[in-house]
Structure formats: C-alpha cells, structure tokens
Inverse folding.
C-alpha cells in the first residue's frame, strides 16, 4: 500500500505539530527528514515555497501548511475529539499564535538580529499574549476544557520554544503554562514523534512509520 509522504525537520515547530497530529490519528506514513540548509529539489517541486512540513498524499494531493495537515489528520481519525468543539475559537487562538506570537517569538529568540529593541521588549510582547493563555489555565487543564484540543497541540511547540530561551524564568513567570506544557510533552505521542530519523537520501525512500490500527 502506498503511504503518504511527509517532508519534515525534527525541530521545526510547524513540522512538530503536524507530526503530533499524524501520530495521534495513527496515520502510517513515509518519513523524509531533511536539513533546512540542504533542502531537496523534490521539496520545491511539491511546494515552491520550500518550507516544512509538506505532506504528499497517495492520490497526488499536496498539503503544505501545518494546520491543514493537522485538520486532515483529525478528519481521518479523531479518537479523543480534539477538533469537535469550539472550532471557531480554536482557530482564533491558533491564528493569534501563528500571526502574532510567532513574530515576537522569533525576535525574542534571535534578538541580536533585531537590534531595534531590547530582548526585554520582545519578551514583553510575547508575555502579553501568553498571559491570556495563563489566565485561561487558571480554571481549565487545557485551553478549552479539561480535555486536549487541536489548539493545545498547535501552540505547544511554540510555547516550548519560548520557554527554552530561559526555562527558569519561564517556569517562575508562567506557572499554569508550565504545567500545561509538561502534561503535553509527557504524552507518549510527543515522545514518539520526536524520535531522531536519518536524513533522507533523495535517491531512496524515507523511513516508514507504521501504526497497527
């Protein structure tokens, strides 16, 4: 049986959330790990923008946005109803993450590349957004209830990146988000999807990830 082919990079937050959703939905696929500094021609042939993740389905369809891969995955199998309730609100939170938080996160992580403002300024911009999530978690275990939603998974890799800049400061500043992050990172599917793969040889196949449903 021909498998979907996923072009991915282990540490990319967009690729991470796509992989989590595929593991959650138990979708078997061919894993093609790439290096961002040596992107293969095949990646550009499938998606001219050349970013990961890119999912090439057996019918030839190409999905080159991580959120669309997540939506496709749960449309195939959503055993714990990650994407059933509060869909509009979930998409709103994801949009804030992708359009606003990611911008300031990059400037916080790489503040030496953005000397217009101080690292504290960029961190403060991130804090304002994260404070909204911290407040939600005062009364909920996850962003919309005591159950995981797709939005939790969509935000996780980015909050994780933010925390890793100064983990001690983060844990003291964001108590609720720290617990939320630890809970999600502790999931078996998170640990499984962070497995290290060999870099894909463009002249061969990738490694198969098979789920016995």
């Amino acid at each position: 049986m021909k498998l979907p082919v996923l072009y991915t990079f282990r540490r990319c937050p967009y690729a991470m959330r796509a992989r989590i959703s595929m593991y959650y939905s138990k979708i078997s696929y061919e894993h093609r790990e790439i290096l961002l500094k040596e992107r293969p021609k095949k990646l550009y042939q499938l998606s001219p923008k050349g970013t990961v993740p890119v999912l090439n389905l057996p019918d030839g369809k190409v999905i080159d946005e991580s959120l669309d891969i997540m939506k496709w995955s749960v449309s195939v199998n959503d055993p714990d109803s990650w994407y059933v309730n509060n869909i509009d609100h979930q998409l709103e939170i994801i949009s804030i993450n992708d359009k606003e938080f990611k911008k300031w996160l990059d400037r916080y992580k790489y503040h030496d590349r953005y000397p217009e403002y101080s690292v504290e300024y960029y961190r403060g911009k991130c804090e304002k957004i994260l404070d909204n999530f911290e407040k939600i978690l005062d009364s909920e275990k996850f962003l919309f209830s005591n159950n995981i939603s797709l939005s939790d998974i969509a935000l996780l890799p980015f909050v994780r990146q933010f925390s890793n800049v100064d983990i001690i400061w983060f844990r003291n500043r964001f108590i609720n988000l720290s617990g939320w992050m630890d809970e999600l990172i502790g999931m078996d599917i998170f640990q499984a999807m962070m497995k290290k793969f060999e870099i894909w040889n463009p002249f061969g196949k990738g490694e198969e990830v098979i789920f016995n449903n």
About this structure: The radius of gyration is 18 Å. The chain has two domains: 5-80+190-209, 87-187. Residues 5-80+190-209 form a domain with the Glutaredoxin fold (CATH 3.40.30.10). The CA atoms of residues 45 and 62 lie 10 Å apart.
